[in-house]
Structures are given as C-alpha cells and as structure tokens.
Design a protein that fits this description.
The chain has 344 residues and is α+β, with helices and mostly antiparallel strands. It contains 10 helices and 18 strands. Helices cover 38% and strands 25% of the residues. A hairpin with a 6-residue loop joins β12 and β13. It is globular and about 75 Å long.
Length: 344
C-alpha cells in the first residue's frame, strides 16, 4: 500500500504544532530544549521559531547563562496571540469560557439556556460573545448527546439540535476552528488533566445529569468513542429483567427529588450504580470511577463500594472518586479548544 505523500506545507504545520505544544507544556524553553523534546533538528527549530517570532506567536522571555558559546535565548508562547472558547449547552444554562493562547481563563460567562430553542438562538448568543472577543479563533462546544465528526446524531429531548452538523455550520458562519464533543467525554478529559493522573490510567466518569445518565471512558489517555460514537450511553445498560440503568435510577427516586435528582440515593439506586461499576470492572477494569458531587455523597460512594463486592471480587473494585462535574467539563472543553489552536 502506498504511503500518503506529505507536502512541505503539511510538514511545516506539523513542526510548528510540535513546537507550540512543547512551549505550552514547558511554559518556556530554549532551542536546544525544544530539539531534545521533539527530535526536530536545531536548524529547523531555529527557522520555525524565527517565523513564530515574526508573526507574534512566540516571544523572547529571557537569555540563559552561557556554557561556553552563545547565550541561549529562551522562548515562550505569546499569551495574547489568539483566543479560544470553550462552551457547553445545558438544560439550565449556556456556559462560555474565553481563554488565551496559553490556556489561561480570561472570562467565564453564564447565559440563559438555548438548547430547547435551537441553533438560531445559539447563533445569536455566540455572536455576542465573539463581538466582545474578536480574537477568538477556535472553539470547543460540549453537548449532552452523541457526536460524530461534529454532527449531533443522538440528543434526546432536544430535537432542534438532532442531526445538526454544528461543526460545519459554525465554521462556515464564524470562520472558527471548531471541535464538538459529548459532555462526558469532555468531562473525563478535564478530570484527567486536573487530577494529574498518569496517561496510562483507565478511567470511567459517570454523571446522572439533567438529561439522563452518561459516562465518559478514558483508556491510556484516549477517549473511547466506539464504532458508531455511541460509547458511554449507559442509560441503555440492562440491569433488572426489563429495566435499564436509566429506569432503575428513576424508579429509585420514589418521588423525592431535588433539582431533578433525589436528596439521597435509595437502596435501588445504590444497587444500580454498583452493578454499573461492576460492569466497568468486568469490561475495562478502570483505575477509578468518577462521580459528580451533585449526584452522590461520600457515604453513598462507600455503600456503592461495599455493594459492588456482591458482583465482582473486591480486590478489583476501583477507586471511587467524587468530583466537580462542571469544573471538569469546562476544563476539558478549554483543553480541546487550546489543542485545536496549537495544531491548526
């Protein structure tokens, strides 16, 4: 099979991307440090940095002491070069987070929900944010549904966004570089980045949510989407004769609700979540399962761990973690928007 031909332009783009990501990771670096980290030759790194300095993308932040020759120049990304945007659509609100070229948050904005109204309402809202920050060049949009190649193909209860190619529409409308991601995939990416866990860890992030349960699965640093990008739709997991996980959670609430969720998890909900954790153990054997702090308490997590031992050997039960879903979700989107800027 013939190998694809890589044009000089594409090669140049790949080199610049590696240098950007290295500077982002290290905060600042000399040419020699970049060469060591990327295996790119010194003359190539020098030429790329010269181009990046000329277009305002990289800046000199210092000069190191000499070890016998010229004093090495230290470079960093120019934080003001470009802006990115992370935003997510939820039942109660639409949340925007504007970031600079090194991922620092400039402003977080909460606006009314537009998910019931449809793309037209989102367009007006997004236009307002872009008018306020015209330097935005990339965006990551999170949605409570299944996404493939930027198109939302499964989003229960929000018909106006169903089968909507959000990526193509907004790239054409605003000239943005756009990423569209499922909410739980973004959340597990954000949690992994914030927690500092090793890249080789396997994680499952479960959220009962305002729109029904969902899960994000990360294996060796990669989100698992499945053959049709339907991975993580745990509402459909069969659990009790003719009931699935979603029905088990709904049946467990017994009419006692708080913001759409029960005040405390009942015995049925504990068992349903224990069975789901046991399924994760049997299939992907995760290092940790993460829950949202709005969904369960520490006492609930202890009950789930104990109950899990009914279904799988307790030596294989993973760490059960309670985290801040909104923080993880938004951070995951910010990282996706930033990576899109770095690899354009």
């Amino acid at each position: 099979m013939k190998k694809p031909f890589i044009t000089p332009k594409r090669m140049n783009q790949a080199i610049h991307s590696q240098i950007r990501l290295t500077l982002l990771e290290l905060n600042h670096a000399t040419k020699a440090e970049i060469c060591q980290r990327t295996d790119i030759s010194f003359p190539t790194v020098s030429k790329a940095l010269e181009q990046m300095e000329q277009n305002g993308e990289a800046i000199i932040v210092g000069i190191d002491e000499s070890s016998g020759g010229r004093r090495p120049v230290r470079y960093a990304l120019n934080a003001e070069h470009r802006l990115g945007l992370g935003l997510y659509l939820e039942k109660e609100e639409t949340v925007y987070s504007v970031i600079n070229y090194v991922g620092e948050v400039i402003e977080s904005i909460k606006l009314p929900s537009v998910i019931q109204e449809g793309p037209e309402a989102l367009t007006l809202q997004l236009q307002t944010v872009i008018n306020r920050y015209p330097g935005i060049q990339s965006a990551a949009v999170g949605v409570p549904g299944s996404v493939k190649d930027g198109k939302i193909f499964f989003i229960p209860e929000y018909e106006k966004f169903s089968q909507f190619d959000l990526k193509v529409f907004y790239e054409d409308r605003f000239g943005l570089q756009l990423v569209v991601e499922n909410d739980m995939n973004a959340a597990v990416l954000g949690y992994h980045a914030l927690s500092g866990r090793a890249d080789d860890q396997t994680l499952a992030y479960l959220y009962l949510g305002q729109n029904g349960p969902g899960a994000g699965i990360l294996i060796n640093g990669d989100v698992i989407r499945g053959s049709t990008s339907f991975s993580g739709e745990v509402s459909f997991v069969p659990q009790y004769d003719r009931s699935n996980f979603l029905e088990a959670i709904r049946n467990s609430r017994n009419g006692h609700q708080k913001d759409g969720l029960s005040d405390e998890l009942g015995a049925l909900a504990i068992d349903a979540m224990s069975r789901l954790v046991a399924a994760f153990v049997s299939i992907i054997n995760p290092h940790a399962v993460i829950f949202c702090k709005e969904d369960i308490s520490e006492a609930d997590a202890d009950k789930i761990a104990i109950n899990c031992a009914k279904y799988v050997p307790d030596s294989h039960i993973p760490e059960l973690v309670i985290s801040d879903w909104q923080q993880d979700y938004l951070h995951g989107l910010q990282r996706l928007a930033l990576y899109r800027m770095m690899t354009e």
